[in-house]
Amino acid sequence: MATQEIKLHPSWLDPLRSEFEQPYMRELKQFLLSERQRGRTIFPRAPNWFRALDLTPLDKVRVVILGQDPYHGPGQAHGLCFSVPPGVRPPPSLVNIFKELRSDLGIEPSPHGFLKHWASQGVLLLNSVLTVETGQAASHRERGWERFTDAVVRLVNGKRDPVVFLLWGSYAQKKAAFVDTSRHLILKAPHPSPLSAHSGFLGCRHFSKANAFLEERGFAPIDWALPECAAAE
Asked: Which residues are annotated as active site (predicted)?
């Protein structure tokens, strides 16, 4: 992918410029173009592929939540892991995240699943793979996105200010295995999906622990309560 084609916040674009010029990114671009030419529908829409980075500049990152793939149902994916646009019912994993917020911080579940409010405060909501074919979970894995998002995580790991990594499930925990635990806080729990949430995600208290860590170091806590009305993109 040529950097002149990428609309991305400068705090990310400048240090990631060399990644965009790598052969694997050119191959990824060709794969995505060929899928479109074959009539395949790709989620999210192209302008939202790097939405997580646009909404949370590198210098503002205070918390990282790692997902795997975008939602593959119509209208769900919009570039932020676990989040859905206004008007879309929160998926089961997000419902469990809201349950944990209520248990941990007394925040009542939001009627919507639009997490832009978190991203704007410095919560990087990053999927490992940034695209997917409609109805085909994991269809764009091992095409190059993982290498790119590894580079993103390495940039966050290199920040001087401490960051909280919320790693839910073995996939996220393996992806961030190289993060420097002497400077950053790593919080691990099972994935919030209905298959594993009751094995330790519910009751993990990651939201209050993340805020305590930030406040102890002189940083403002995250306001995890979503606005009643979801603002448009």
From this structure: 69
